[in-house]
Amino acid sequence: MNIFPPADLIALGLFVFAWGGYALALEWNERGKDSLNARMHRFREVWMQRALERDVRIIDTQIMGSLQNGTAFFASTTLLAIGGVLSLLRSSSETLAMVADLPFAIATTRTQWEVKVVGLVIIFVYAFFKFAWSYRLFNYAAILLGAMPPREAFGTPEGDSHVRKVTGMIESAGRHFNRGQRAFFFALGYLGWFAGPYALMVATVATVAVMWRRQFISQSRRALDETEPS
Hints:
The chain is elongated. It is 77% helix and 0% strand. Helix 1 runs parallel beside helix 7. The chain has one domain (6-226). By secondary structure, it is mainly α. The chain starts with 5 loop residues before the first helix and ends in a 7-residue tail after the last helix.
């Protein structure tokens, strides 16, 4: 016996396909190399090259600290979100009664409601793991930054090798952070399912459209056209 009617399954399938397809297009497709994320990665390498040229790297450690703090903030926020969503499972009856009184409320069984809530928990758990791992990778990058050779190593094989190591570590940390933030955005789209399958479809398309615009045709993306790293 199916828990959900066909419309809900189609909407959920569209949601999963949109999330996976967007991630593949952004990270593995040739078009993704022109995204805002990909262009910012090239500036990470320039940053490390400039850091190697400097005798005093206080500004670099401050930037690294701000990246770590931002990631830690999202990780802790995700834990709060998980706790909030889990509280919905403890009060399913009260929540369903409240939702039933809302205008244009969609008839939902207790089982359907709990499955939807569990799905939201899974999304936030995934986001937490991504943010937590990103935070750890930024810690590793900070250690590599502290182990950077002196200025005299600039242009040498040792210096170039270390720049690639730090850049690669920061890129990996940024990639996992982006995936965690992407989960946050899709979690907002997933909320549409609580209003019905068609609301989920609309919210999914809207989420992808907003993120795609920011990556490829936003003002921040266009600003990098005139500031390509050399």
